[in-house]
Input
Amino acid sequence: MPVKAKTPVPDHFFYDLMLKRRTVIIAVLLGLAAVLFLLNISLGSSPIPLGEIFKVLFIGKGQGNNVMIIRDIRLPMSLMALVVGASLGIGGCEIQTILRNPIASPFTLGITNAATFGAALGLILNANLLKVSESIMVTANAFVFALLASVCIYAFSSRARAGKSSIVLFGIALNFFFTALTMILQYVSDSEDLKSLVFWNMGSLLKTNWTKLFIVLGALLFCFLIFHRNAWKLTAMTLDDTKAKSLGVDAQKIRRMVIILTSLVTAFAVSFVGSIGFVGIIAPHIARQLVGEDQRFFLSLSALIGAVVVALSFTVSKLIIPGVVLPIGLVTAVVGIPVFLSIIFREREVM
Amino acid sequence: MLRTENLSFSYKTKKGPLPVFQDLNVSFSPGFNVVLGPNGSGKSTLLKSIFGLLPYEGTVWYQKENVTAMGIDDKTKLMSYLPQMDTSFSVLTVLEMVLLGRLPELGRKVKDEDLHSVMEILASLNIERLAPRRFTELSGGQKKMVLVAQALVRNPKVILLDEPVNSLDLQKQLELCHLLRCLEEGTSIIAVLHDLNLAVQFAHHIVVLNGKGKLYGAGSPRETVTEKMLREVYGVVASVNYDKNGRPAISAIRSTRDVVA
Output
Protein backbone atom coordinates (compact mmCIF):
# COMPACT_ATOMS: atom_id res chain seq x y z
CA MET A 1 0.00 0.00 0.00
CA PRO A 2 1.29 3.43 -0.92
CA VAL A 3 0.52 5.11 2.36
CA LYS A 4 0.41 4.06 5.97
CA ALA A 5 -3.13 2.72 6.07
CA LYS A 6 -5.66 4.57 8.12
CA THR A 7 -7.74 2.10 10.05
CA PRO A 8 -10.40 1.14 9.44
CA VAL A 9 -10.56 1.65 5.68
CA PRO A 10 -14.08 2.94 4.85
CA ASP A 11 -16.33 0.39 3.17
CA HIS A 12 -17.54 0.60 -0.41
CA PHE A 13 -21.04 -0.63 0.35
CA PHE A 14 -22.65 2.18 -1.67
CA TYR A 15 -20.82 0.99 -4.78
CA ASP A 16 -22.26 -2.52 -4.51
CA LEU A 17 -25.71 -0.96 -4.09
CA MET A 18 -25.14 1.27 -7.09
CA LEU A 19 -24.22 -1.72 -9.27
CA LYS A 20 -27.38 -3.52 -8.15
CA ARG A 21 -29.45 -0.46 -9.01
CA ARG A 22 -27.90 -0.35 -12.47
CA THR A 23 -28.63 -4.02 -13.06
CA VAL A 24 -32.27 -3.40 -12.11
CA ILE A 25 -32.49 -0.45 -14.54
CA ILE A 26 -31.16 -2.63 -17.35
CA ALA A 27 -33.60 -5.43 -16.47
CA VAL A 28 -36.54 -2.98 -16.47
CA LEU A 29 -35.59 -1.69 -19.91
CA LEU A 30 -35.21 -5.22 -21.24
CA GLY A 31 -38.76 -5.88 -20.02
CA LEU A 32 -40.00 -2.68 -21.65
CA ALA A 33 -38.34 -3.62 -24.93
CA ALA A 34 -40.00 -7.05 -24.80
CA VAL A 35 -43.44 -5.52 -24.17
CA LEU A 36 -43.05 -3.06 -27.07
CA PHE A 37 -41.81 -5.88 -29.28
CA LEU A 38 -44.98 -7.91 -28.63
CA LEU A 39 -47.15 -4.82 -29.03
CA ASN A 40 -45.59 -4.13 -32.43
CA ILE A 41 -46.36 -7.69 -33.57
CA SER A 42 -49.88 -7.34 -32.33
CA LEU A 43 -50.63 -3.93 -33.87
CA GLY A 44 -51.32 -3.51 -37.55
CA SER A 45 -54.11 -3.45 -40.11
CA SER A 46 -55.57 -6.50 -38.39
CA PRO A 47 -54.71 -6.66 -34.69
CA ILE A 48 -53.54 -10.06 -33.43
CA PRO A 49 -54.20 -11.01 -29.78
CA LEU A 50 -51.27 -11.89 -27.53
CA GLY A 51 -52.28 -15.56 -27.08
CA GLU A 52 -52.30 -16.02 -30.82
CA ILE A 53 -48.82 -14.43 -31.11
CA PHE A 54 -47.35 -16.86 -28.55
CA LYS A 55 -49.03 -19.75 -30.33
CA VAL A 56 -47.49 -18.77 -33.64
CA LEU A 57 -44.06 -18.04 -32.15
CA PHE A 58 -43.71 -21.18 -30.07
CA ILE A 59 -45.90 -23.81 -31.72
CA GLY A 60 -45.94 -22.46 -35.24
CA LYS A 61 -49.70 -22.74 -35.64
CA GLY A 62 -52.35 -20.04 -35.97
CA GLN A 63 -55.60 -19.03 -37.54
CA GLY A 64 -55.86 -18.05 -41.18
CA ASN A 65 -52.97 -15.96 -42.47
CA ASN A 66 -51.65 -15.17 -38.98
CA VAL A 67 -48.63 -17.46 -39.28
CA MET A 68 -47.60 -15.85 -42.53
CA ILE A 69 -48.29 -12.30 -41.30
CA ILE A 70 -46.32 -12.77 -38.13
CA ARG A 71 -43.40 -14.76 -39.50
CA ASP A 72 -42.80 -12.93 -42.73
CA ILE A 73 -43.92 -9.41 -41.98
CA ARG A 74 -44.46 -8.32 -38.40
CA LEU A 75 -41.75 -10.34 -36.65
CA PRO A 76 -38.87 -9.07 -38.80
CA MET A 77 -40.28 -5.53 -38.67
CA SER A 78 -40.65 -5.51 -34.89
CA LEU A 79 -37.17 -6.96 -34.46
CA MET A 80 -35.76 -4.44 -36.93
CA ALA A 81 -37.21 -1.60 -34.84
CA LEU A 82 -35.25 -2.89 -31.82
CA VAL A 83 -32.06 -3.62 -33.77
CA VAL A 84 -31.96 -0.28 -35.58
CA GLY A 85 -32.66 1.55 -32.32
CA ALA A 86 -29.88 -0.34 -30.55
CA SER A 87 -27.48 0.32 -33.44
CA LEU A 88 -28.11 4.06 -33.34
CA GLY A 89 -27.97 3.96 -29.53
CA ILE A 90 -24.49 2.43 -29.35
CA GLY A 91 -23.33 4.57 -32.27
CA GLY A 92 -24.36 7.70 -30.41
CA CYS A 93 -22.96 6.45 -27.12
CA GLU A 94 -19.47 5.88 -28.51
CA ILE A 95 -19.33 8.95 -30.75
CA GLN A 96 -20.27 11.12 -27.76
CA THR A 97 -17.64 9.35 -25.68
CA ILE A 98 -14.75 9.82 -28.09
CA LEU A 99 -15.66 13.38 -29.05
CA ARG A 100 -16.53 14.42 -25.48
CA ASN A 101 -19.57 16.13 -26.89
CA PRO A 102 -23.05 15.37 -25.50
CA ILE A 103 -24.86 16.44 -28.67
CA ALA A 104 -22.71 14.52 -31.12
CA SER A 105 -24.11 11.46 -32.86
CA PRO A 106 -23.33 9.37 -35.94
CA PHE A 107 -25.22 12.09 -37.84
CA THR A 108 -22.59 14.62 -36.77
CA LEU A 109 -20.06 12.71 -38.85
CA GLY A 110 -22.13 13.19 -42.01
CA ILE A 111 -22.95 9.52 -42.50
CA THR A 112 -26.72 9.94 -42.80
CA ASN A 113 -26.58 12.74 -45.32
CA ALA A 114 -24.10 10.77 -47.36
CA ALA A 115 -26.49 7.81 -47.33
CA THR A 116 -29.33 10.08 -48.46
CA PHE A 117 -27.24 11.25 -51.38
CA GLY A 118 -26.55 7.63 -52.34
CA ALA A 119 -30.25 6.86 -52.19
CA ALA A 120 -31.00 9.95 -54.28
CA LEU A 121 -28.55 8.76 -56.95
CA GLY A 122 -30.54 5.54 -57.19
CA LEU A 123 -34.00 7.08 -57.02
CA ILE A 124 -33.40 10.04 -59.32
CA LEU A 125 -30.62 9.05 -61.72
CA ASN A 126 -31.28 5.30 -61.56
CA ALA A 127 -27.62 4.81 -60.82
CA ASN A 128 -26.77 1.29 -59.70
CA LEU A 129 -23.33 1.61 -58.17
CA LEU A 130 -22.83 -1.99 -57.11
CA LYS A 131 -24.71 -3.53 -60.04
CA VAL A 132 -27.12 -5.29 -57.71
CA SER A 133 -30.71 -6.28 -58.38
CA GLU A 134 -33.16 -3.42 -58.82
CA SER A 135 -34.95 -4.11 -55.54
CA ILE A 136 -31.97 -3.35 -53.29
CA MET A 137 -30.29 -0.84 -55.57
CA VAL A 138 -31.26 2.20 -53.48
CA THR A 139 -30.13 0.53 -50.27
CA ALA A 140 -26.82 -0.49 -51.82
CA ASN A 141 -26.17 3.04 -53.09
CA ALA A 142 -26.98 4.51 -49.69
CA PHE A 143 -24.59 2.06 -48.09
CA VAL A 144 -21.77 2.87 -50.52
CA PHE A 145 -21.98 6.56 -49.69
CA ALA A 146 -22.40 6.04 -45.95
CA LEU A 147 -19.22 3.99 -46.07
CA LEU A 148 -17.50 6.59 -48.24
CA ALA A 149 -18.28 9.26 -45.66
CA SER A 150 -16.88 7.03 -42.91
CA VAL A 151 -13.69 6.43 -44.89
CA CYS A 152 -13.29 10.22 -45.28
CA ILE A 153 -13.80 10.75 -41.54
CA TYR A 154 -11.45 7.90 -40.76
CA ALA A 155 -8.74 9.20 -43.07
CA PHE A 156 -9.10 12.67 -41.58
CA SER A 157 -8.98 11.44 -37.98
CA SER A 158 -5.82 9.44 -38.73
CA ARG A 159 -3.91 12.62 -39.36
CA ALA A 160 -1.44 13.28 -36.58
CA ARG A 161 -3.12 16.25 -34.97
CA ALA A 162 -6.82 15.65 -35.63
CA GLY A 163 -8.43 16.51 -32.31
CA LYS A 164 -11.97 16.24 -31.09
CA SER A 165 -13.26 19.56 -32.38
CA SER A 166 -11.60 19.27 -35.78
CA ILE A 167 -13.34 15.91 -36.30
CA VAL A 168 -16.70 17.53 -35.51
CA LEU A 169 -15.90 20.38 -37.93
CA PHE A 170 -14.97 17.92 -40.65
CA GLY A 171 -18.25 16.04 -40.06
CA ILE A 172 -20.25 19.25 -40.36
CA ALA A 173 -18.44 20.04 -43.61
CA LEU A 174 -19.33 16.58 -44.97
CA ASN A 175 -22.94 17.12 -43.94
CA PHE A 176 -23.22 20.37 -45.87
CA PHE A 177 -21.43 18.90 -48.85
CA PHE A 178 -23.70 15.88 -49.21
CA THR A 179 -26.83 17.93 -48.53
CA ALA A 180 -25.85 20.28 -51.34
CA LEU A 181 -25.20 17.37 -53.71
CA THR A 182 -28.60 15.86 -52.86
CA MET A 183 -30.24 19.24 -53.50
CA ILE A 184 -28.66 19.44 -56.95
CA LEU A 185 -30.20 16.07 -57.77
CA GLN A 186 -33.54 17.21 -56.38
CA TYR A 187 -33.37 20.32 -58.54
CA VAL A 188 -33.06 18.32 -61.75
CA SER A 189 -35.48 15.52 -60.83
CA ASP A 190 -39.13 15.16 -61.83
CA SER A 191 -41.87 15.21 -59.23
CA GLU A 192 -42.37 11.42 -58.98
CA ASP A 193 -38.70 10.75 -58.17
CA LEU A 194 -38.64 13.68 -55.81
CA LYS A 195 -41.58 12.18 -53.96
CA SER A 196 -39.93 8.82 -53.54
CA LEU A 197 -36.75 10.49 -52.24
CA VAL A 198 -38.77 12.47 -49.73
CA PHE A 199 -40.42 9.25 -48.56
CA TRP A 200 -37.07 7.46 -48.35
CA ASN A 201 -35.78 10.26 -46.18
CA MET A 202 -38.69 9.91 -43.78
CA GLY A 203 -37.50 6.45 -42.86
CA SER A 204 -39.52 3.27 -42.96
CA LEU A 205 -39.47 -0.17 -41.41
CA LEU A 206 -42.10 -1.48 -43.80
CA LYS A 207 -39.69 -2.93 -46.35
CA THR A 208 -37.90 -5.07 -43.77
CA ASN A 209 -37.22 -8.72 -44.53
CA TRP A 210 -35.22 -11.39 -42.74
CA THR A 211 -32.08 -10.89 -44.85
CA LYS A 212 -31.93 -7.17 -44.09
CA LEU A 213 -32.60 -7.86 -40.43
CA PHE A 214 -29.75 -10.36 -40.14
CA ILE A 215 -27.30 -8.03 -41.86
CA VAL A 216 -28.09 -5.14 -39.48
CA LEU A 217 -28.15 -7.49 -36.49
CA GLY A 218 -24.78 -8.94 -37.48
CA ALA A 219 -23.20 -5.49 -37.67
CA LEU A 220 -24.76 -4.55 -34.33
CA LEU A 221 -23.52 -7.65 -32.51
CA PHE A 222 -20.03 -7.37 -34.00
CA CYS A 223 -19.62 -3.76 -32.93
CA PHE A 224 -21.28 -4.29 -29.56
CA LEU A 225 -18.92 -7.12 -28.66
CA ILE A 226 -15.81 -5.16 -29.59
CA PHE A 227 -16.99 -2.11 -27.65
CA HIS A 228 -17.89 -4.30 -24.71
CA ARG A 229 -14.46 -5.90 -24.64
CA ASN A 230 -12.90 -2.44 -24.53
CA ALA A 231 -15.33 -1.14 -21.91
CA TRP A 232 -12.70 0.20 -19.49
CA LYS A 233 -10.60 1.80 -22.19
CA LEU A 234 -13.68 3.52 -23.56
CA THR A 235 -14.56 4.69 -20.06
CA ALA A 236 -11.06 6.15 -19.81
CA MET A 237 -11.73 8.07 -23.04
CA THR A 238 -13.83 10.45 -20.93
CA LEU A 239 -10.56 11.55 -19.32
CA ASP A 240 -8.08 14.05 -20.64
CA ASP A 241 -6.19 12.61 -23.65
CA THR A 242 -2.79 12.78 -21.92
CA LYS A 243 -4.32 11.25 -18.80
CA ALA A 244 -5.82 8.41 -20.85
CA LYS A 245 -2.46 7.85 -22.49
CA SER A 246 -0.75 7.73 -19.11
CA LEU A 247 -3.12 4.89 -18.19
CA GLY A 248 -2.01 2.94 -21.24
CA VAL A 249 -4.92 3.95 -23.49
CA ASP A 250 -3.96 5.24 -26.92
CA ALA A 251 -6.71 7.85 -27.34
CA GLN A 252 -6.08 8.39 -31.04
CA LYS A 253 -6.23 4.68 -31.78
CA ILE A 254 -9.44 4.16 -29.81
CA ARG A 255 -10.97 7.19 -31.52
CA ARG A 256 -10.21 5.75 -34.95
CA MET A 257 -11.57 2.34 -33.97
CA VAL A 258 -14.82 3.88 -32.72
CA ILE A 259 -15.24 5.98 -35.85
CA ILE A 260 -14.91 3.01 -38.18
CA LEU A 261 -17.19 0.74 -36.11
CA THR A 262 -19.95 3.29 -35.48
CA SER A 263 -19.85 4.24 -39.14
CA LEU A 264 -20.36 0.61 -40.06
CA VAL A 265 -23.25 0.06 -37.68
CA THR A 266 -24.95 3.35 -38.66
CA ALA A 267 -24.39 2.81 -42.37
CA PHE A 268 -26.25 -0.51 -42.24
CA ALA A 269 -29.08 0.83 -40.08
CA VAL A 270 -29.58 3.99 -42.11
CA SER A 271 -29.33 2.44 -45.57
CA PHE A 272 -31.99 -0.16 -44.75
CA VAL A 273 -34.57 1.95 -42.95
CA GLY A 274 -33.76 5.49 -44.03
CA SER A 275 -32.76 8.30 -41.73
CA ILE A 276 -34.14 7.90 -38.25
CA GLY A 277 -33.30 11.07 -36.42
CA PHE A 278 -32.19 11.84 -32.92
CA VAL A 279 -32.09 8.33 -31.45
CA GLY A 280 -28.32 8.57 -31.47
CA ILE A 281 -28.49 11.71 -29.33
CA ILE A 282 -31.39 10.91 -26.99
CA ALA A 283 -30.50 7.34 -26.05
CA PRO A 284 -27.00 7.95 -24.68
CA HIS A 285 -28.15 11.15 -23.01
CA ILE A 286 -30.84 9.35 -20.98
CA ALA A 287 -28.51 6.42 -20.31
CA ARG A 288 -25.81 8.74 -18.98
CA GLN A 289 -28.24 10.37 -16.57
CA LEU A 290 -29.29 6.96 -15.27
CA VAL A 291 -26.02 5.05 -14.89
CA GLY A 292 -23.14 7.42 -15.62
CA GLU A 293 -20.35 6.58 -18.03
CA ASP A 294 -19.05 3.24 -16.79
CA GLN A 295 -19.18 1.59 -20.21
CA ARG A 296 -20.05 -1.80 -18.77
CA PHE A 297 -23.50 -0.30 -18.17
CA PHE A 298 -23.55 2.84 -20.31
CA LEU A 299 -23.11 0.91 -23.57
CA SER A 300 -25.82 -1.70 -22.90
CA LEU A 301 -28.24 0.88 -21.58
CA SER A 302 -27.73 3.18 -24.59
CA ALA A 303 -28.51 0.22 -26.85
CA LEU A 304 -31.61 -0.68 -24.85
CA ILE A 305 -32.94 2.87 -24.68
CA GLY A 306 -32.34 3.32 -28.40
CA ALA A 307 -34.24 0.08 -29.04
CA VAL A 308 -37.11 1.15 -26.77
CA VAL A 309 -37.36 4.63 -28.35
CA VAL A 310 -37.55 3.28 -31.91
CA ALA A 311 -39.94 0.47 -30.91
CA LEU A 312 -42.12 3.02 -29.12
CA SER A 313 -42.03 5.36 -32.12
CA PHE A 314 -43.02 2.41 -34.31
CA THR A 315 -45.99 1.68 -32.04
CA VAL A 316 -47.00 5.35 -32.03
CA SER A 317 -46.60 5.57 -35.82
CA LYS A 318 -49.23 2.84 -36.20
CA LEU A 319 -51.65 4.37 -33.69
CA ILE A 320 -51.88 8.07 -34.67
CA ILE A 321 -53.97 7.54 -37.82
CA PRO A 322 -55.81 4.17 -37.78
CA GLY A 323 -54.91 2.07 -40.79
CA VAL A 324 -51.96 4.29 -41.75
CA VAL A 325 -48.36 3.73 -40.69
CA LEU A 326 -46.64 7.11 -40.40
CA PRO A 327 -42.94 7.17 -41.40
CA ILE A 328 -40.87 6.07 -38.43
CA GLY A 329 -38.24 8.75 -38.99
CA LEU A 330 -40.79 11.51 -38.58
CA VAL A 331 -42.25 10.07 -35.40
CA THR A 332 -38.82 9.61 -33.83
CA ALA A 333 -37.92 13.19 -34.66
CA VAL A 334 -41.15 14.49 -33.13
CA VAL A 335 -40.36 12.55 -29.95
CA GLY A 336 -36.70 13.53 -30.17
CA ILE A 337 -36.78 17.26 -30.68
CA PRO A 338 -38.23 18.17 -27.24
CA VAL A 339 -35.51 16.07 -25.58
CA PHE A 340 -32.85 17.67 -27.75
CA LEU A 341 -34.02 21.14 -26.76
CA SER A 342 -34.06 20.23 -23.09
CA ILE A 343 -30.39 19.17 -23.40
CA ILE A 344 -29.49 22.54 -24.87
CA PHE A 345 -31.42 24.50 -22.24
CA ARG A 346 -29.97 22.50 -19.39
CA GLU A 347 -26.47 23.30 -20.60
CA ARG A 348 -27.34 26.99 -20.79
CA GLU A 349 -28.32 26.91 -17.14
CA VAL A 350 -25.01 25.37 -16.15
CA MET A 351 -23.06 28.03 -18.06
CA MET B 1 16.65 5.84 -9.05
CA LEU B 2 15.36 7.53 -12.19
CA ARG B 3 17.90 9.22 -14.40
CA THR B 4 17.78 11.17 -17.66
CA GLU B 5 20.71 10.96 -20.01
CA ASN B 6 21.29 13.79 -22.51
CA LEU B 7 17.60 14.51 -22.65
CA SER B 8 16.70 17.11 -25.29
CA PHE B 9 13.37 18.34 -26.51
CA SER B 10 12.47 20.99 -29.08
CA TYR B 11 9.11 22.15 -30.36
CA LYS B 12 8.86 22.20 -34.12
CA THR B 13 7.89 25.64 -35.37
CA LYS B 14 7.74 27.19 -38.81
CA LYS B 15 11.01 29.00 -38.15
CA GLY B 16 12.75 25.77 -37.17
CA PRO B 17 13.14 23.88 -33.92
CA LEU B 18 12.57 25.77 -30.68
CA PRO B 19 14.54 24.01 -27.96
CA VAL B 20 12.96 23.69 -24.52
CA PHE B 21 15.92 21.96 -22.91
CA GLN B 22 19.11 20.39 -24.15
CA ASP B 23 21.30 17.55 -22.92
CA LEU B 24 19.67 17.43 -19.54
CA ASN B 25 21.24 14.96 -17.11
CA VAL B 26 19.15 14.81 -13.97
CA SER B 27 18.63 12.07 -11.43
CA PHE B 28 15.77 11.54 -9.01
CA SER B 29 16.12 9.37 -5.91
CA PRO B 30 13.32 7.63 -4.04
CA GLY B 31 11.49 10.22 -1.95
CA PHE B 32 9.90 13.58 -2.67
CA ASN B 33 11.66 15.29 -5.57
CA VAL B 34 10.63 18.79 -6.57
CA VAL B 35 11.40 20.43 -9.92
CA LEU B 36 11.75 24.22 -9.75
CA GLY B 37 12.29 26.82 -12.42
CA PRO B 38 10.71 29.93 -13.91
CA ASN B 39 7.75 29.83 -16.32
CA GLY B 40 8.66 28.20 -19.59
CA SER B 41 11.80 26.55 -18.23
CA GLY B 42 10.55 23.13 -19.31
CA LYS B 43 9.37 21.64 -16.01
CA SER B 44 6.14 20.23 -17.45
CA THR B 45 7.93 19.21 -20.62
CA LEU B 46 10.48 17.31 -18.55
CA LEU B 47 7.73 15.35 -16.77
CA LYS B 48 5.93 14.61 -20.03
CA SER B 49 9.18 13.51 -21.64
CA ILE B 50 10.00 11.15 -18.77
CA PHE B 51 6.62 9.49 -19.29
CA GLY B 52 7.16 9.41 -23.04
CA LEU B 53 4.24 11.65 -23.89
CA LEU B 54 6.54 13.77 -26.07
CA PRO B 55 9.12 12.68 -28.68
CA TYR B 56 12.43 13.55 -27.01
CA GLU B 57 16.04 12.75 -27.75
CA GLY B 58 18.19 10.99 -25.19
CA THR B 59 17.44 8.20 -22.77
CA VAL B 60 15.51 7.81 -19.52
CA TRP B 61 16.72 5.12 -17.13
CA TYR B 62 15.01 3.58 -14.14
CA GLN B 63 17.73 1.75 -12.23
CA LYS B 64 19.14 -0.51 -14.96
CA GLU B 65 16.02 -0.47 -17.13
CA ASN B 66 15.77 1.62 -20.27
CA VAL B 67 12.46 3.47 -19.89
CA THR B 68 12.76 5.06 -23.33
CA ALA B 69 12.61 1.63 -24.96
CA MET B 70 9.71 0.40 -22.83
CA GLY B 71 6.29 -0.31 -24.30
CA ILE B 72 3.32 1.66 -23.07
CA ASP B 73 2.10 -1.20 -20.84
CA ASP B 74 5.41 -1.50 -18.96
CA LYS B 75 5.66 2.26 -18.67
CA THR B 76 2.16 2.42 -17.22
CA LYS B 77 3.10 -0.24 -14.68
CA LEU B 78 6.18 1.65 -13.60
CA MET B 79 4.88 5.22 -13.57
CA SER B 80 1.78 7.34 -13.16
CA TYR B 81 1.30 10.90 -14.30
CA LEU B 82 -0.87 13.83 -13.22
CA PRO B 83 -1.20 16.49 -15.94
CA GLN B 84 -1.03 20.16 -14.99
CA MET B 85 -4.33 20.97 -16.64
CA ASP B 86 -6.95 18.27 -16.60
CA THR B 87 -9.99 18.63 -18.81
CA SER B 88 -11.52 15.32 -17.77
CA PHE B 89 -15.27 15.58 -17.91
CA SER B 90 -16.42 12.15 -16.85
CA VAL B 91 -19.92 11.46 -15.59
CA LEU B 92 -18.59 9.04 -12.99
CA THR B 93 -18.60 8.88 -9.23
CA VAL B 94 -15.38 9.77 -7.43
CA LEU B 95 -14.87 6.11 -6.56
CA GLU B 96 -15.13 5.10 -10.23
CA MET B 97 -12.86 7.95 -11.25
CA VAL B 98 -10.10 6.81 -8.89
CA LEU B 99 -10.75 3.20 -9.91
CA LEU B 100 -9.79 4.19 -13.48
CA GLY B 101 -6.31 4.85 -12.10
CA ARG B 102 -6.03 1.06 -11.81
CA LEU B 103 -7.09 0.59 -15.43
CA PRO B 104 -4.43 -1.98 -16.34
CA GLU B 105 -5.70 -4.24 -13.53
CA LEU B 106 -9.43 -3.89 -14.19
CA GLY B 107 -11.41 -6.79 -15.59
CA ARG B 108 -15.06 -7.50 -16.37
CA LYS B 109 -15.87 -7.52 -12.69
CA VAL B 110 -14.25 -5.09 -10.30
CA LYS B 111 -12.35 -6.96 -7.62
CA ASP B 112 -12.83 -6.20 -3.92
CA GLU B 113 -9.11 -5.62 -3.67
CA ASP B 114 -9.32 -2.79 -6.22
CA LEU B 115 -12.23 -1.14 -4.40
CA HIS B 116 -10.40 -1.52 -1.11
CA SER B 117 -7.30 0.27 -2.37
CA VAL B 118 -9.46 3.06 -3.81
CA MET B 119 -11.17 3.64 -0.48
CA GLU B 120 -7.80 3.45 1.26
CA ILE B 121 -6.20 6.16 -0.85
CA LEU B 122 -9.30 8.35 -0.53
CA ALA B 123 -9.13 7.96 3.24
CA SER B 124 -5.45 8.83 3.39
CA LEU B 125 -6.21 12.04 1.45
CA ASN B 126 -9.15 12.73 3.81
CA ILE B 127 -11.67 12.75 0.96
CA GLU B 128 -13.38 9.39 1.55
CA ARG B 129 -16.71 11.14 2.06
CA LEU B 130 -16.56 12.30 -1.57
CA ALA B 131 -16.55 8.69 -2.86
CA PRO B 132 -20.24 8.50 -3.90
CA ARG B 133 -20.35 12.03 -5.36
CA ARG B 134 -20.28 12.74 -9.09
CA PHE B 135 -16.87 13.95 -10.25
CA THR B 136 -18.37 16.66 -12.48
CA GLU B 137 -20.16 18.23 -9.52
CA LEU B 138 -17.01 18.79 -7.45
CA SER B 139 -15.14 22.06 -6.96
CA GLY B 140 -11.81 22.63 -8.70
CA GLY B 141 -9.79 21.80 -5.58
CA GLN B 142 -11.80 18.67 -4.84
CA LYS B 143 -11.34 17.51 -8.44
CA LYS B 144 -7.61 18.03 -8.06
CA MET B 145 -7.52 15.85 -4.93
CA VAL B 146 -9.46 13.12 -6.75
CA LEU B 147 -7.04 13.24 -9.69
CA VAL B 148 -4.11 13.01 -7.29
CA ALA B 149 -5.78 9.96 -5.73
CA GLN B 150 -6.13 8.52 -9.22
CA ALA B 151 -2.40 8.96 -9.81
CA LEU B 152 -1.45 7.39 -6.46
CA VAL B 153 -3.91 4.48 -6.33
CA ARG B 154 -1.90 2.00 -8.35
CA ASN B 155 1.11 2.40 -6.10
CA PRO B 156 3.61 2.85 -8.94
CA LYS B 157 7.36 3.15 -8.40
CA VAL B 158 7.55 6.58 -10.02
CA ILE B 159 4.84 9.24 -9.65
CA LEU B 160 5.00 12.33 -11.85
CA LEU B 161 2.87 15.19 -10.55
CA ASP B 162 2.60 18.42 -12.53
CA GLU B 163 1.58 21.14 -10.05
CA PRO B 164 -0.38 18.88 -7.71
CA VAL B 165 -1.13 21.61 -5.18
CA ASN B 166 -2.40 24.45 -7.33
CA SER B 167 -6.11 25.19 -6.71
CA LEU B 168 -5.87 23.52 -3.28
CA ASP B 169 -6.48 25.47 -0.09
CA LEU B 170 -3.62 26.04 2.35
CA GLN B 171 -4.53 23.12 4.62
CA LYS B 172 -4.85 20.70 1.69
CA GLN B 173 -1.53 21.91 0.27
CA LEU B 174 0.24 21.16 3.52
CA GLU B 175 -1.52 17.82 4.01
CA LEU B 176 -0.82 16.66 0.47
CA CYS B 177 2.85 17.65 0.60
CA HIS B 178 3.18 15.90 3.93
CA LEU B 179 1.60 12.77 2.49
CA LEU B 180 3.90 12.86 -0.56
CA ARG B 181 6.91 13.16 1.74
CA CYS B 182 5.75 10.17 3.77
CA LEU B 183 4.91 7.76 0.92
CA GLU B 184 6.26 4.26 1.09
CA GLU B 185 10.03 3.93 0.84
CA GLY B 186 11.24 3.23 -2.66
CA THR B 187 8.62 5.36 -4.37
CA SER B 188 9.98 8.33 -6.28
CA ILE B 189 7.72 11.37 -6.46
CA ILE B 190 8.70 13.93 -9.04
CA ALA B 191 6.58 17.03 -8.63
CA VAL B 192 6.54 20.46 -10.19
CA LEU B 193 5.78 23.11 -7.58
CA HIS B 194 5.66 26.87 -7.80
CA ASP B 195 5.52 27.56 -4.08
CA LEU B 196 9.16 27.71 -2.98
CA ASN B 197 8.33 27.65 0.71
CA LEU B 198 6.32 24.44 0.30
CA ALA B 199 9.18 22.98 -1.73
CA VAL B 200 11.84 23.74 0.87
CA GLN B 201 9.62 22.56 3.72
CA PHE B 202 8.75 19.14 2.31
CA ALA B 203 11.11 18.12 -0.52
CA HIS B 204 13.91 15.61 0.01
CA HIS B 205 15.59 16.66 -3.18
CA ILE B 206 15.25 19.69 -5.44
CA VAL B 207 16.14 20.07 -9.12
CA VAL B 208 16.36 23.61 -10.53
CA LEU B 209 16.05 24.37 -14.24
CA ASN B 210 17.68 27.63 -15.22
CA GLY B 211 15.10 28.80 -17.74
CA LYS B 212 17.57 28.58 -20.63
CA GLY B 213 17.20 24.87 -21.27
CA LYS B 214 19.86 23.77 -18.82
CA LEU B 215 20.09 22.37 -15.34
CA TYR B 216 20.98 25.05 -12.78
CA GLY B 217 21.56 22.79 -9.84
CA ALA B 218 20.27 19.88 -7.82
CA GLY B 219 20.49 18.79 -4.22
CA SER B 220 18.88 19.21 -0.82
CA PRO B 221 16.65 22.26 -0.21
CA ARG B 222 19.49 23.88 1.74
CA GLU B 223 21.95 23.37 -1.10
CA THR B 224 19.67 24.50 -3.90
CA VAL B 225 17.43 27.26 -2.61
CA THR B 226 19.85 30.11 -2.03
CA GLU B 227 19.76 33.87 -2.48
CA LYS B 228 22.11 33.46 -5.43
CA MET B 229 19.81 30.92 -7.10
CA LEU B 230 16.75 33.10 -6.57
CA ARG B 231 18.52 36.04 -8.16
CA GLU B 232 20.00 34.14 -11.10
CA VAL B 233 17.11 31.81 -11.94
CA TYR B 234 14.02 33.72 -10.88
CA GLY B 235 15.38 37.26 -11.08
CA VAL B 236 14.26 38.19 -7.58
CA VAL B 237 16.01 39.67 -4.61
CA ALA B 238 15.20 37.71 -1.48
CA SER B 239 16.60 36.90 1.87
CA VAL B 240 16.91 33.23 2.78
CA ASN B 241 17.08 32.39 6.47
CA TYR B 242 17.56 28.98 8.00
CA ASP B 243 15.46 27.55 10.81
CA LYS B 244 16.85 25.38 13.60
CA ASN B 245 16.53 22.26 11.41
CA GLY B 246 18.59 23.93 8.73
CA ARG B 247 15.65 24.37 6.35
CA PRO B 248 15.64 27.57 4.33
CA ALA B 249 12.77 30.06 4.56
CA ILE B 250 12.37 32.72 1.89
CA SER B 251 11.19 36.26 2.58
CA ALA B 252 11.26 39.88 1.34
CA ILE B 253 11.10 39.34 -2.36
CA ARG B 254 11.24 41.95 -5.07
CA SER B 255 11.97 41.68 -8.76
CA THR B 256 15.46 42.54 -9.98
CA ARG B 257 13.83 44.28 -12.93
CA ASP B 258 13.20 47.95 -12.36
CA VAL B 259 9.49 48.16 -11.82
CA VAL B 260 8.12 51.68 -11.94
CA ALA B 261 5.77 52.01 -9.03
Notes: The longest helix of chain B spans residues 112-124.
